[in-house]
Amino acid sequence: MIKAVWIKHASQLVTLANKVPGPRIKDAMNELSIIENGSIWLENGIIQAVGTTEQLETLYKEREIEAEIIDATGHLLTPGLVDPHTHVAFGGSREREFEMRLEGATYMQIMNAGGGIHATTKMTREATEDALVDQTSKRLDSFLAHGVTTIEGKSGYGLDLETELKQLRVMKRLQEEHPVDIVPTFMGAHAVPTEYKGREEEYVDLIINEMLPVVAKEKLAKFNDVFCEVGVFTPEQSERILEAGKSLGLTPKIHADEIEPYEGAELAARVGAISAEHLLKASSTGIQAMAEQGVIACLLPATALYLRETAAKGRVMIDAGVPVAISTDCNPGSSPTTSMPLVMNLACISMRLTPAESLCAATYNAACAIQMEDKVGSLEVGKQADVVLWNVQSYQQLQYLFGVNHVKTVWKKGVKVVG
Ligand code: NIG
Ligand code: FE
To answer: Is the CB of 120 under 6 A from ligand 1?
Structure first.
């Protein structure tokens, strides 16, 4: 039987306990509900009690013998980080493109020449399901080592029914085999595959008539995402695909206004997307529309840095009332990283989020972006016991000391998985 875990004396226990349902906006993103000299009791995979060490001593003194005691003196304790946007299940690697971009090629030039997403599609089609499970599992280990206990994962490197299903099945298997929780998203509309060049509408029809119905019937995905971008899918095509998914019970997400302004933020608001991603070039009208509809902006500052682009206007979005989440965008092209701590630092440095907003965006708001906030994203009684102990004293230090992995110990569903 797994013992209970009793963590005591944390210098800061950041609960992010929520007062109102739904994602946090504006000032609420700064309210972390911190307990000093904090303590938490984990049992049966669930958080049983949270409070000051003094309060928990009263509640649990008689059961002390039953628990593994962790002295967290001088350490920060937070919820497991949540990464709400990844392309984690892919074959192969694309380091040559990194060099090409440094030599002057752009992301879209490489993609239009058959590289980029097309290159990974080829490698993913060629890989066996077992090989993909193996490679992806190693990436999940790396996420855990960086304090990430829940991620979203997209298909979109198959671009044919068989391989899209293979990617989704890989994620389903890993959900069973690996401690990290994976929430699956179908993204058949990640690119128009090279064999459909010049027949884009036919590919859109294929997604709507053949891929989405199978994905929905087999319950392989919760969300449906589209890369709405000049030269990829138009806003009209994106809307058709997202509406088709909606009618089958898949909630829309959208890669919007990443490379060029394309009224993607406006589309996200119009179709009732749970989140819009990237948004580097989102218009003021689009930002306003997202605020009005409560669409979560899922911002990816590591991608902007890696493509040497100016990051999204995170500060402006929060001030306008848009709920903001942040993510690695882990993928083999524009953001090959699993480090949410780095993304939190970058959110402060390049988007001017406060350290508190950045932590909220990587935990509670991130959980909202994948509709998992009833289980993860904050340390509250009844939620999953996903907890990270850090080698820093405060969340301010965590955001300030950048480029270093400060993770000391990670518990997933109450079981120690790192440290
Ligand atoms: O979110 N922008 C589109 N898709 C991914 C990149 C995928 C790739 O380059 O393999 C992104 O950045
Ligand atoms: Fe992405």
So the answer is: yes
Does ligand 1 come within 6 angstroms of the Cβ of 338? no
Distance of CA 53 to CAs 6, 8, 63, 77, 222, Å? 10, 6, 14, 13, 39
Q: Which two tokens stand for residue 412?
A: 């997933």
- Structure tokens given for 93: 């690697």
CB 329 near ligand 1, within 6 Å: yes
Amino acid present at 387 = V
Distance separating alpha carbons of residues 263 and 281, to the nearest angstrom: 9
Classified as helix, coil or strand, 35 is: strand
**Structure confidence by residue, pLDDT tens digits, 163-221:** 999 999 999 999 999 999 999 999 999 999 999 999 999 999 999 999 999 999 999 99
Atom 6 of ligand 1: nearest residue by CA position:
334
Atom of ligand 1 nearest to the CA of 157: 10
Strands 4-14 and 34-43: antiparallel
Question: Distance between CA atoms of 419 and 404, rounded to whole angstroms?
Answer: 16
For the whole model, what pTM was predicted?
A: 0.98
